[in-house]
Amino acid sequence: MEWLKRVLSRLPHPIRWGLTMFLGVVLIIAGIIMIVTPGPGLLVIFLGISILALELEWARELNKQGIQGLEKVMAKLKSIFKRKK
After folding, report:
1. Whole-Å CA distances, 66 to 23, 40, 41, 70, 84
2. Per-residue pLDDT, 80
3. Phi/psi at 37 (nearest 5 deg)?
4. How many whole angstroms separate alpha carbon 7 and alpha carbon 3?
5. What range defines the domain where residue 75 resides?
């Protein structure tokens, strides 16, 4: 995601904003389509929200909540697999 920030930071603000909105929305729509068709739908939706988070505050907050939820799930899975050894 850092490389995308670097590339977008070189562009003027209106172009950066428009490109970010376009990429984010396209990825979210593609992710929604992938939920009912074969493909990594939730991952693509999360990527789209992450791109929108570069410009939008609500997407930053949603992205942060998603990462925190993922960290909780990973911690739970680690504790489950540690017990089985």
Report:
1. 19, 16, 15, 6, 28
2. 86
3. -115, 165
4. 6
5. 2-83
pLDDT score, position 2: 80
What pLDDT, on a 0 to 100 scale, did the predictor assign at position 7?
Answer: 83
d(CA 50, CA 30): 14
- Give how many domains the chain has, as a whole number: 1
pTM of this prediction? 0.76
Residue 60, H or E segment: helix 57-83
Q: Are 27 and 44 in contact (CB under 8 A)?
A: yes
d(CA 66, CA 45): 11
Which parts of the chain register pLDDT below 50?
Answer: none
Q: 65 Cβ partners below 8 Å, 6+ apart? A: none
